[in-house]
Amino acid sequence: YQRRVREAVVSTQSTGIATVMKDEFGWSDQRTSLLAMWMSVMFVPGALLFPWVMSWTNMRTVIIGNTCLMAAGGVIKILSVTLIPLEYLIYTAHATQIINGFCGAVPFSGVMYITVNWFPTRERIVATGVVMATLNTGIAVPFLLGPTLVPEPGNGTNTSSALAGNETHDHAFYCHRLTYYLCIQGICMIMTLVAVVIYFPSRPRYAPTASAVTARLDIKEGLIILMRRGNFWLIVFAYALTSGVFNGYGLVLDVILQKSKISQTTAGLIGFSALLASVPANILIGALGAIFSRFQKTLTVGVLATGTVCMCVFVAELEFWLPRSMTLVWISCVVGVMCITGVVPLLFDMSTESSHPVSEELSSTVMVMGNQMMCNVFTVMLQIPNLIQDDQKDRLNYVLIASFALSVVLASLYRHSNVRLLIDAHSITVDQLDTRSIHQIRNAGVRM
């Protein structure tokens, strides 16, 4: 039974429980990264398939199919610690990671399709922020759930006085806790499928804006247009250098924090608090972007610059360049993550504005592909033997700072575009938009 749980636990990310996985179950950092790599690798085909499927079907069909796969992965998680024969466990572990990675592309790639087809102009960025906030909530939960269900050895958590000093019983305690952890994840996935089947409409009864019914280019033409729009690629790389690098950095964050004398429990609480704080940040920054749409670029650069400064302070604390202050560690990490995640709705909206009339699902797919590719660079680096030793992983702190600083530069070079807003304000078509008409509309006092 203990071996069964030990193999099955690799089907879930060890967020917040890295110390337990290493001390109690013998997992190396390379093995944890290998399972995480499946998530990153399978995200790519899922993202590539999404625009093609959306070209001949509707969003309800895609979401139901996606959640069916998620529920299947949840069932496998539960069976991995109950009924599946031991010799097949390693295959089920990899299978769940492949499924999770493949399904993860749809929520990110589909967010802009939903907002443009369901919400009016002034609510689009806010709706994007709400969707991103729910995604961050799901990411934040394991940071609290993991250390709570699977407490760190020697961190003040006593199973019972009889178990103290009994390695066999203590190991059995962790096996049972990991079983609960897997089953909770599996049940949540199944409940998600039930909720989607009960209610998820294919499209609204009436189009909320003129741009929602504007004809979009097909995939081939859209890709050709995107390749020629440097303005769009500035946003793609700015997003990849912030969110993508930070996601890759998160794969070794536990190791870096351990080296900085921060316990697993504290690291989990910091990660949970940071991601939980990003939930209102997504909505708040999205609302500010809708209110001050004419200054969206300025707002984006300001948020990215703030996040860069906070991450510099956070790294300085981890590297002991500053006197250790846990208060400063908490504040710099929480505010930094709030800025990194909060700016995402603005970046997605800017990417769709600069790429119209390319379909939102295609431009969003390119965005998340760039983000995931950057994360994959970290994953591959961690898999190469002797490239980055455990005592050298704190060097990624410098990569983090440099990437964030470069994203600020790229966002500063972006030329603000409001093609969809012009279409919505005057009910005109893309073909009618030329330099003269845009100039006349702006002189007329239309809020961009």
What is the strand and helix layout of this fold?
Blueprint: H1 2-8, H2 18-25, H3 29-54, H4 59-79, H5 89-103, H6 105-118, H7 124-149, H8 167-198, H9 219-228, H10 230-250, H11 253-259, H12 264-291, H13 296-318, H14 326-342, H15 344-355, H16 360-383, H17 396-413, H18 419-426, H19 435-443
Helix pairs in contact: 1-8, 3-5, 3-6, 3-16, 4-5, 4-8, 6-7, 6-16, 7-12, 7-15, 10-15, 10-16, 10-17, 12-14, 13-14, 13-17, 15-16
Q: Would you count the extended β strands for me?
A: 0
Low-pLDDT residue spans: 1-15, 156-169, 433-448
What's the story with the biggest beta sheet? none
| Number of DSSP helical runs | 19
**How far apart are the termini?**
62 Å
Shape designation: globular
Portion of residues in beta strands equals under 5%
Pairing-aware structural class of the strands and helices?
mainly alpha
Q: What integer is the average pLDDT?
A: 76
Over all CA atoms, what is the radius of gyration?
23 Å
Q: H/E element string?
A: HHHHHHHHHHHHHHHHHHH
Task: Indicate the percent of residues in helices.
Answer: over 70%
